[in-house]
Amino acid sequence: MLPIKIVGTGLYVPGEPIGNQELKHLARIEFDAEKMEAKLGIKTRHIARLRAIKETTLDFATHASEEAIKNAGINPEEIGLLIVATDTPEYITPATAIVLQGRIQKSEKWAMAFDVASSCASFTMAFDTAASILAANAGIKYALITGVYNMPAFVRDGDAFGYSIFSDGAAAFVLTRDLESNASYLGSQMLADGTQYDYIGVYAGGSKIPVTKEVLDKNENGLLNLQPLPGDRNVRLWPMVVEKILEKHSLQISDIDYFFFTQINKSVIEKVMEALGQPMEKTVCVMDRYGYTGSACIPMAFHEAVKSNLVKRGQKILFVASGAGLSVGSNLFIY
C-alpha cells in the first residue's frame, strides 16, 4: 500500500461532438449506426481532423493537464514527474512527455519526463509507475500522468471501422504523497502476450517499416486491422484480472465501489459485470459521449465520475484496461 492521493483531474476533447449520421457525411463512410449504438454504445465522438481543428496529441495532453493542475490548485513548477500514456505520440522522438514539460513548465526544471506506450493499457501502466516513483522518491512533490489518444490521425481515408470506433481525447491526474488521509494506491496486476502483436496496430513509421512512397502506394501506412480480434477476449480476460488482483490484496468483489473498464464496447462491460456478479450501477460508461479514446478512456471516465460526484473520497476503485499487443493492466486504489 502506497500513500498516494489523486488531488486533481482534467479532461479535454477537441471541437463539437460528431454524431453517427454526421460522421458518415464528414468521413464519407457507411456503417450500421443503430448496431453501433446498441452494442458498442457509441453515439458521439470528437475528431479534430474532421472538424478541421489543427490540434494533435500534444495539444490534447496540454489542455487536459492544465485543467488537472488547476483543479489540484498547485503551481506547475512543483511537478517533478510527468508521464504521458499513449500509443499515438506527437513524435517518435522526443517523447511527448518531454515536450509537454516544456509547455507546462516553460523552461529547464529538475523534473523527470517520459512516455509509457503499452497500447490502450498505457494509462494503467503509467499510473502504477508514477505511484511507485512518487512513493519512493521524497524529492518529487507532485506527479502528472496524462492519458491521451489521437488514433483518428492514423485512420486511413475510407476506413469505416477506424473512423466509427476511434476518437480523440485526453485526461490527466495530479498525484501526491499523502500520509494524513486514507487515500492510497494498493497495487496492480498486469498481463502481457506479445504473440498477439499482429492483430491491429500502426506498423509503419518505426525502424522495421519506414514510411516510404512504396508503403504509401500500397496503403500500408496508418491504422491496420490485420486480422479479427477474438470476440470473447475481454470477456475472458477482465474477470480473470479482477479476481487475481483481489486475491492478491485479500479483498472481496463486494469491497470494490466502482469498476472502470476500457471504454470500447458497452455490451462487453455488461457481460463482464454479470460474470463478476456486480450491478451496472457500479461501473461507468462514457463511450456514448466520447467514442473510444484508447489510452485516455479510463481517466476520462474517472474524471466524469468525480465531476458528477458519483465517485467519492474513501471509495475503493479498480481500473482494468486492455490493448493491442496484447497488454492488460489494472490499478487498485482508494480515492
Question: In a few lines, what is going on in this structure?
Answer:
The protein contains 11 helices and 14 strands. By secondary structure, the protein is α+β, with helices and mostly antiparallel strands.
Chart the SSEs and their pairings.
Layout: E1 4-12, E2 18-19, H1 20-27, H2 33-40, E3 44-45, H3 57-72, E4 79-85, H4 96-105, E5 112-116, H5 122-136, E6 142-149, H6 160-165, E7 169-177, E8 184-188, E9 191-192, E10 200-202, H7 213-217, E11 223-225, H8 233-248, E12 258-261, H9 266-276, H10 287-290, H11 297-307, E13 316-323, E14 327-334
Parallel strand pairs: 4-5, 4-6, 12-13
Antiparallel strand pairs: 1-7, 2-3, 6-7, 8-14, 9-14, 10-11, 13-14
Helix pairs in contact: 3-4, 8-9
What would your notes on this structure say?
The two termini are 13 Å apart. The chain has helices at 20-27, 33-40, 57-72, 96-105, 122-136, 160-165, 213-217, 233-248, 266-276, 287-290, 297-307, and strands at 4-12, 18-19, 44-45, 79-85, 112-116, 142-149, 169-177, 184-188, 191-192, 200-202, 223-225, 258-261, 316-323, 327-334. It has 335 residues and is of the alpha+beta class. 33% of the residues lie in helices and 22% in strands. The longest helix has 16 residues, at 57-72. The strands form four sheets. The chain has a five-stranded mixed β-sheet, with helices on both faces. Strands 8, 9, 12, 13 and 14 form a five-stranded mixed β-sheet that branches. The chain has eleven helices and 14 strands. The chain folds into two domains: 4-185, Peroxisomal Thiolase, Chain A, domain 1 (3-Layer(aba) Sandwich), CATH 3.40.47; 186-334, 3-Layer(aba) Sandwich (Peroxisomal Thiolase, Chain A, domain 1), CATH 3.40.47.
